[in-house]
User: Which sequence fits this backbone?
């Protein structure tokens, strides 16, 4: 099995943590039901009880996957308590340089998806050395080891999500530890050059096996 790769350029950042004075929680992905932005929004009040200055950024395009096929952004906005309006920023779809800036600033990156394949945005956050909170679903389990390279939380559980975010926002040393380990994992397994070499090995093995079969077929032929 050869995984997708993260672009080598993602590793040009993240050697030193760059964080804002007030904590920033970054969600990256389309605003759609399967990505779970509503779960993060439901976790928001509990986080703000301990971190009233925290800013929650939602970077991604809107979709019509809210209840009754409504705009998910509109649905999410309806979940924000009036007192927390200034703590939420809907960034919309961003160009790569803008997204890069948000990744560098983020205190924690959060991926509360209900299901995923191999989430590339999570790989990019790992490459940037960011502390990550993600749902304990198969797509993320291929990337993250709980309490080693990130924190895994129970899917569909805003309370569990809030608890993990509270812990990471409050503990800079833990963030640095998990972020550094995530970066090294991404570098060792998902760096573009590493994945390319793995793919070449697959092709070499296939070509060798194909050549052996052809040679065997030649020896089985009966000459006239």
Assistant:
């Amino acid at each position: 099995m050869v995984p997708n790769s993260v672009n080598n350029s993602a590793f040009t950042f993240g050697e030193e943590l760059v964080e804002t004075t007030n904590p920033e929680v970054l969600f990256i992905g389309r605003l759609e039901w399967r990505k779970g932005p509503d779960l993060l929004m439901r976790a928001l009040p509990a986080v703000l009880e301990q971190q009233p200055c925290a800013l929650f950024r939602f970077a991604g395009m809107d979709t019509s996957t809210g209840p009754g096929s409504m705009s998910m952004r509109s649905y999410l906005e309806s979940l924000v308590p009036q007192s927390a309006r200034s703590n939420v920023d809907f960034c919309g779809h961003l160009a790569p340089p803008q997204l890069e800036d948000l990744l560098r600033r983020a205190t924690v990156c959060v991926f509360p998806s209900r299901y995923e394949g191999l989430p590339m945005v999570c790989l990019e956050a790992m490459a940037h050395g960011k502390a990550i909170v993600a749902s304990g679903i198969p797509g993320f389990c291929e990337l993250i080891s709980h309490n080693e390279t990130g924190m895994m939380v129970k899917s569909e559980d805003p309370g569990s999500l809030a608890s993990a975010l509270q812990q990471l926002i409050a503990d800079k040393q833990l963030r640095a530890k998990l972020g550094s380990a995530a970066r090294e994992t991404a570098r060792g397994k998902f760096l573009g050059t590493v994945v390319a070499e793995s793919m070449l090995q697959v092709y070499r093995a296939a070509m060798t096996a194909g050549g052996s079969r052809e040679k065997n077929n030649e020896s089985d032929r009966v000459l006239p």
